[in-house]
C-alpha cells in the first residue's frame, strides 16, 4: 500500500506532511480546534532571471539514484531533474506527454507509445525504442528487485515496433499501468549505460545517463550531490535557469531549519512542521504550501496479533484525537483524514471529488465507545508494537499520541524506536516488519488517480505491508482498473474506499498540504508533490530585483 509509494503509495517513509487535497488557488479552512489558515497553489512566483547555482536541502541522503529502486522522497526529488518518463505529471496534477509524444490504445490490452524524436541522452546519444524497452524490462526483471515490479504484473510483453514506437501488451486491462508511465515505472534511461555501469548503476561510484534538464555531476557520499545544466535539453520551455544545483543532506529538523534561516540552504521540500512558525516569522524567505496526494496513516503490519480483530482497529481509530495530533505534528496546518487515500489524490476527476470524498463523515472521536470495543474483543491489556524513529519529528509526535490513545482504551501500545535507515527498510523489506504491529506512513499517489493508492491493498501487492486480503476488494479493484473513463473509474474507486474504511487495514490520521521553503535568492519552484517527477529545479531562478 505504499503507503509510501505511490501514493501511489510508494511509501514511504518520511516526513509526514500529508495532503489536504488543496486545490490551486484554494484557501483551505483551519483545522478544527484552531489550526492555521493556508493557501495552496501549484507554483511559486515565476523566476525573473538566471542563477549560477542554488543549494537544496534534503531531509536524508538518497539511498540510491537507480530509477528502478527509487521509492522515496530523497531519491525521487533528485532524479526528477535528471531522468524522465514516457508521460509527465504537471504541477497542477495533470498527466501530459513526456518522452512519448503520443499514445494509443487499439484495444483494452494494448498500449502503443510514439516516442519524441531527437531526444538526446546526457552523453549526446539519441534515445530510441531500444532504450525504452530495456528500461521497462529491467523493472520487470526479478533480479533488479524493483519495488515497482508489481506495477508490471499485468504486462505480457514490451516490444519495439518501430524506431520510435513501443508496444506493450497486457494480460488484462490495466488503466493504472498507463498512468504510472508518468512515474518511476515509466522512466527511460540509456540501455548502453545500464550495461556499462552494471552493479555501480545508481550508486556514488556509478554514472547516470538520462534525458532530463540536469545531468549528474558528482555524488560525494555523505556530503552532497551536484547536478549540472544539460544544454541540449529537448524541452525549451523548461530550459534550466540555474547552471548547477547542489543537494545537501540534513536529517535533524532543527539543523535543517537553521540552514534555511542562515542561507546555507536556499530551499527545500517537506519542511519540518515544527519550524513553520519560525520560518513564517523570519524575513529570510517564504514558506509555501501546494497540492498533495498524501495522508498520514497507521498501516497495520500484523493481522495475527491484537489488531487482527476489526473491533480493536476501530477502537484505536476512535481513540485518536486527530485535531490535537494536527496541532502538534503538522503545525496546525491540516485536517483529519477521512479515508486512507487523501482528498488530493482525487485530482484526475475533480468534478467527482465533492460527491465521492467530501461527503464522507468526519472520523469519530469517542474514547468511551472505543473502550467498550476493546472489551468486546477481549483485547484489554493486549500488546500493540508501534515502530517510531527520529527520521522526522512528526513520526515521534504521532507515535506518542497513538500510545496515549491506546492506553486510554486498555491497549498496551509499546513504542519501538529504530534508526532512520531501519524505518525506511520497513517499506521495502518484509523481514524488517517482524515483531511490529503498526507503522506510521505517509501514503501518497504518484499520479492524480485515487485508484493508485488502493492498488497497494490488493492481495499480494508489494505495498500491502500487512498482507491484508479481501476477495471483495480484489474483484472491485479489477473492475475499476478496467474502466478507462476517469469519472466512471472514480465512482468505482469509491467502492474500494468504502471497503477500506469498513475494514481498516490502514487507519487514516490526517492530511496536510505539501510544503516548500524558498530563500530570498530563489523563486519559481513548483510547490506540490508533483515535484517527485516534474523537473522542478529547471524552473527555479532569481526573483525580480
TrEMBL record:
Signal sequence coordinates: 1-17
Keyword tags: Signal, Transport
Residue ranges constituting the Solute-binding protein family domain according to the UniProt record: 94-461
Source organism, top-level taxon: Bacteria
Protein's UniProt keywords contain Signal: yes
PROSITE patterns on file: PROKAR_LIPOPROTEIN
Cellular localisation: Cell envelope
UniProt cross-references to Pfam families, sorted A to Z: SBP_bac_5
Entry-linked InterPro entries: Peptide/Ni-bd, SBP_5, SBP_5_dom
CDD domains named in the record: PBP2_NikA_DppA_OppA_like
Stated family: Belongs to the bacterial solute-binding protein 5 family.
Protein name (database record): ABC transporter substrate-binding protein
Origin species: Streptomyces litmocidini
